[in-house]
Amino acid sequence: MTGIIAIELRRSGALLAGVATAVLGFAGLYVLALTGQTGLWDQQWNLLAVFQRIMLVVLWPLAVAAGAWHAGRDRRGRMEELLGATPAPGWRRLLPSFLAIALCLVAGYLLVLAAGAPKVATAAGHPGSGWPAVTAVGVLALIAAGVLGLGAGRLLPYAYTPAVLGAGSLAGLLAAIEATKIGDASRPGAALLLPFFTSTISEFQEVGDVVTTGQAWWFGGLVVGGLVLYLATNRVVRALAVVPPALGLLLGAPLLTVTAENAFPIDPAAVTEVCTTDDGPRVCVTAAHRRMLPALVAPSRNALRLMAELPNAPASVHEAVPGLGRPQPATEAWLDTDNLGATDDPAELTARVLAGAGTPLCVRNEESAYLDVLRARAVAAAWLYGSHPVPGPGFSATEQALRDTMWTRLRALPAQEQERRVAAVRAAGLTCGDQAAALGVGAGR
């Protein structure tokens, strides 16, 4: 069998399909480097595995087309009658073709993982869990695409079949993406039956076991059904090809009712705190960002020193992970996760810890109060830092003028009133209150 598969690899398009999978996957990973967006996949192994699954929106149609092309080889070579006259069962002659296309697609997919591995290994603070299973399901989904292409290509062995199947698959998957935007985002439902994920996850999340198990049953059923369709020599057996996918769907049905929170839960190990152990004030980050701790220590302790003049001043700095629902103790200053890796400048890191007087941002950018709250948080940080504007990125002239006005109004108040208002900004932030109202120097206030 090994020798036959080797011949298949040399004389068929299976090897080319594997190479195309690897090249497209590699391009999908590293084209993001041109725009500095490799953070979408290089911060943790789970992110890389999920991003690979996202790329199946392109790799799946490619595998379907490759399988269909591979299946039409005998007709293109005008060898159907000759091979059909051999005494060996038809499935024995076709099985090596399936194995060749499956091996090449799997190799191409794993090469993409290997291409991203060095970058993840140097950037990831926490290895994550469950990513091998996510990758394995991606492999199973790609094999399913290839074998379904083989089955369809054998049923319709025409020159245009690969192109039609490939383009049709791509169009169908893109339409499915649009369809998922219509439903309730908190219940992904049928979207989890797609070979790809419709969005990435954060470095604090993992793919739930119920999703991985359900998808494994579903795609495993598609592989078996496609194989029956490809190897069957009569219509009755081919009709039975729908049974394995139906059984896989039945066994994987729990994923259809799972909520988004359970589909992509928080990984407890990723959000475990890693803290300094010396005699200075504690500075803590999540295990997912443990590599960033050394650069954060000095700026954080400087921020604590600047906040010491506030009543009930914080004594430690902690990374604030969104979505945990944990209240912020008054003794802690919290730094938004998004701010943690936003800069390497120690002065700017200090200013980011001081934002909102050491509290995380509670409003979302679609809320009407968003800009007012951002301005109030920046002005409070400037008051603590001792200068305006604080180190960091610039703003448009109009925006900077608004912030300058707020700064001037705050500084025009008596010193005790200034301190009271900045303390009020911190108090509001601790309870996710209105920090703009607490500062009280914005436009119209």
Order of helices and strands: HHHHHHHHHHHHHHEEHEEHHHHHH
Quick one: biggest sheet? 4 strands, mixed
Distance between the termini: 81 Å
Give the strand content: under 5%
Helix content: 55-70%
Number of strands: 4
How would you write the strand order of the largest sheet?
1-2-3-4
How many helix segments? Answer: 21
Please state the CA-atom Rg, rounded to the nearest Å: 28 Å
Structural class, by secondary structure, is mainly alpha
The overall average pLDDT, rounded, is 87
- Please state the overall shape, judged from the principal axes of the Cα atoms: elongated
Structure report:
The protein has 445 residues and is mostly helical. 60% of the residues lie in helices and 4% in strands. The protein contains 21 helices and four strands. The protein has helices at residues 2-11, 14-30, 45-54, 56-71, 73-76, 80-84, 90-123, 131-155, 161-180, 209-231, 235-239, 243-251, 260-263, 268-271, 293-307, 337-340, 346-354, 370-385, 397-411, 415-430, 435-439, and strands at 273-275, 283-286, 316-320, 332-336. The protein has a four-stranded mixed β-sheet with strand order 1-2-3-4. The longest helix has 34 residues, at 90-123.
